[in-house]
């Protein structure tokens, strides 16, 4: 018996891009100490008060079936947060709670694409994007951003791919590049969506991690409220990655359909986790800033290290917990550089090629270890790159 085409073709017959990460984990399992700069996992755990509230809610009995769209108070809090940050009036009817941002991405594409529909996404991309699109039986089509444009997508390139497409997925602040899309970029994207009648799915899980520029939700742009679904999550903003709690914000009629989808798939999110998420949101912006601050510090540390040499270049990262580094001067691909760095110095980074063709010749560094260790790893990475150019 064979598995379904839907499941067996999720990876598209190719790599999932995680070979270097898997090699690093094999080394760790064998007893080798490895500095991991690979995945976007905070080096702190979920704050004790949030866990205490989660425990209180669970012991208090919120362990049965919870409201499938999400508990009203949490949906209201997210709606108020979105209204305050974007100026777009938002109510609980525009919000559905999901088991994390990944589930929100899957649900959003299920809502707006039918089997065989073309779904666009920007390259470089978060590694799950094309598989998510295949998982809903859409046809994934990448639109390349360019290093020469600091990975700001060109509206003209999106328009060239948009004929007959149904949706476009964007992510700002961006994983893997750390790029924050400018207003000009987003206005161009919005114009393409209006011109070609595209649904826009905006992954905004890094919206609290802004180092330069501003976060603009495209749902707030003219004519976009009724054609945009926004994906949000507590994972990055509140260091709640394992709690698996996210949301979709969009038109009320689409949210009602997503509630039907959840009824037949996830059947909602545990009530005690939703209670803890509500508690976390009520801690306010000061808490979100506290969670984001280590990445701001480490970005500054990395930029200082990079300024002291001229082999490794930095993509302008205005947000998120990552840096994309240009290592083309070494003559190696991102993958070859990552493997070499791992074997020579036991430092694990992600090859740019893991995130699409546009990031070839780059590596992604996650700023997710303690400051002094991160600074030391960056110095070693740059010294390794310089050694390669000396050998050449």
UniProtKB/TrEMBL annotation:
Domain of life: Bacteria
Gene Ontology molecular function terms on file: L-aspartate:2-oxoglutarate aminotransferase activity; pyridoxal phosphate binding
Domain Aminotransferase class I/classII large: from-to ranges: 37-379
Names of the cofactor(s): pyridoxal 5'-phosphate
Name this protein carries in UniProt: Aminotransferase
Pfam families hit by this protein: Aminotran_1_2 (PF00155)
The family this protein is said to belong to: Belongs to the class-I pyridoxal-phosphate-dependent aminotransferase family.
UniProt-listed Enzyme Commission number(s): 2.6.1.-
Keyword Membrane recorded: no
Coiled coil: none
Lineage: Bacteria, Pseudomonadati, Pseudomonadota, Alphaproteobacteria, Rhodobacterales
Keywords: Aminotransferase, Pyridoxal phosphate, Pyruvate, Transferase
Organism: Sulfitobacter undariae
Annotated catalysed reactions: L-aspartate + 2-oxoglutarate = oxaloacetate + L-glutamate
CDD domains: AAT_like
One GO BP annotation of this record: amino acid metabolic process
Enzyme class: transferase
